[in-house]
Amino acid sequence: MSRYQQLFNRLSAQNEGAFVPFVVLGDPTYELSKQILITLIESGADALEVSIPFSDPLADGPEIQGAVLRAIGNGMSVEKSFTLLKEIRDLYPEVPIGLLMYANLIHAAGIDQFYAKCAKAGVDSVLVADVPLRESADFKKAATAHNIAPIFICPPDATDETFSGIAKEGEGYTYLVSRAGVTGVAQRLENDSLEDNIAKLKAVGAPPIVQGFGISSPEQAKHYLDHGVAGVISGSAVTQIIRENLTDESALLEKLGAFIQSMKAATK
């Protein structure tokens, strides 16, 4: 049984949802990024979603773009990212770790070679943000060969073909985005297609639904969990705390821990 299966089974039995923070590896520095990842887990994160910094993060808004630039500016690389991931995996053998990637970085390494590195580092899943389901065969093949869960995005305007494809090809979890556009901290709750999309994904047997894009408060997390998703992802709000406390490491980690605790509390 995969780490994701174990996690969702356990949380379901406890009548809880999953809280999954997202950060950019190496932001702002390698060593502080490691402390941030440890703080996220120790403060209650059920799983991690992370990205390897890439110069053109098309799906990401200004907050995460800033994190990418900080990490790259401080020398973070693909190889260092895998080293960091392995260090976190060794510390936390049971926590699911997912990568959100862009295709260029994977192609640069060679698709099969990249997924082999993921497996060696203890990565559980890979979501390729700029590769749609219909063009994902080569990535899915490599993922399967190395026992990595392929994660697929379900957009607000998904078609019946997309729902069925996610159920057939996806593993680990389904990334349901709450709105069109790029990542960022949102103030309003998205409801237009939410209930229909959740119902359709469940009807076709898609992997557990995790809601993302714009979730920045316990109230928002609870709203989406109350609508039937299995978990929520928050990235820009986490990265904002990092940016606002770059000059005070202890305050950064303390505020980050408090935010994670509040978000996790909303899932219970």
UniProtKB/TrEMBL annotation:
Pathway(s) the chain acts in = Amino-acid biosynthesis; L-tryptophan biosynthesis; L-tryptophan from chorismate: step 5/5
Q: What is this protein called?
A: Tryptophan synthase alpha chain
Q: What does this protein do?
A: The alpha subunit is responsible for the aldol cleavage of indoleglycerol phosphate to indole and glyceraldehyde 3-phosphate.
Where is the catalytic site? E49, D60
Q: What is its EC number?
A: 4.2.1.20
Any one Gene Ontology MF annotation carried by this entry is: tryptophan synthase activity
Q: How does it assemble?
A: Tetramer of two alpha and two beta chains.
Which Pfam family is one of this chain's hits?
Trp_syntA
